[in-house]
Amino acid sequence: MSDVERVLPARHLRGSVRVPGDKSSSHRALMISALAKGQSSITGLSPGDDVAGTSVMLEHLGATRIEEEGRVLISGPDEGLHPGTMPLDCANSGTTMRLMIGIVSAIPGTHYLVGDASLSKRPMDRVATPLGLMGAIVRGHGESLTPPLTVESPAKLHALSYHVPVASAQVKSAILFAGLAADGDSSVTEDVRTRTTTEDMLQAAGVALTSHDVGKGREITLRPGRPLRHDWFVPGDPSQAAFFAVLGAIHRDATLEVLSVDASPERVGFVDVLQRMNADVRLVERGTIHALHSQSSSLVATEIHAHEIPSVDEVPVLVVAAAAASGVSAFRAMGELRHKESDRFAGSLSLAQNLGCRVWSEGDDFFIEGLESASAFADFAFASTLDHRMVMASAVAGCAGRGCTIEGASTVSSSYPHFFRDLALLQ
Ligand code: S3P
Question: H-type helices in 330-405, by residue range?
Answer without folding.
Answer: 344-355, 388-400
